[in-house]
Amino acid sequence: MRKLIAGMKISVDGKIEGPEGYADWVEAWSEDYGLTAQIDACLLGGRLYPGYEQYWTAIQNAPDKPLPTTGKLVAPDEVEWARFAARTPHYVLSNTLASALWPKTKFLRGLDEVAALKQQPGKDIYLMGGAQITTTLIDAGLVDELRFIVYPLIAGRGKALFATTERRTGLEPRQVRQLRDGRISLIYTVG
Questions:
Q1: pLDDT for 106-127, tens place per residue?
Q2: Could you tell me the CA-to-CA distances from 2 to 5, 24, 115, 151 in Å, in that order?
Q3: What is the pLDDT of residue 28?
Q4: pLDDT in tens, 58-72
Q5: What is the spatial distance between Cα 26 and Cα 190, in angstroms, rounded to a whole number?
Q6: Going by C-beta distance under 8 Å and a sequence separation of 6 or more, which residues neighbour residue 182?
């Protein structure tokens, strides 16, 4: 069975967004979890997907230009992820979205369809978020592994990753690694 691996960039106090509605402490949204070689599909929630598609399409179309959303130049790792994302199937768990610009995007309507996706042959699946889909899938027992990049700051007000978790879930630490700029990489098996 394929593993469903959630990867999130969080603050020390477990926030994935600040009060402005985004994680202004994250410099680049490239895949920093060491997953690219072991995945062949991505899963996102319906609230996250439209902005995700827009962000990565802008990089795919103009990798040498500043991003329209931030005005910042694209990081080389983001260009690499944009190319990977363009050729990788994306699944969106949503009851409302029905169309996407990317031809390799499919829509899932329920948790049973996520469970069925895990049963299909292939490599592991990268659960990219957002918070609601991540906690829902953890509560349903469908997430196998959590990978965090923890930023050395207390975000304060903002959106907490586990604010809506319904049940207590044990985690088994697999790896802790210090990264540059004081960030920490944490990998847990979901118990």
A1: 999 999 999 999 999 999 999 9
A2: 9, 33, 10, 29
A3: 86
A4: 999 999 999 887 888
A5: 25
A6: 151, 152
Whole-number Å distance between alpha carbons of 121 and 48: 26
What the block records as the tokens of 188 is 């847990």
Domains of the chain: 4-190 (3.40.430.10)
Rounded Cα gap, residues 20 and 33, in angstroms? 25
**Nearest to 144, CA basis, from 114, 113, 110:** 114
pLDDT at 121: 97
**Are the C-beta atoms of 55 and 67 separated by less than 8 Å?**
yes
Length of the chain: 191
d(CA 23, CA 18): 6
Residue 151: predicted pLDDT = 97
Separation of CA 60 from chain center: 18
SS3 113: helix
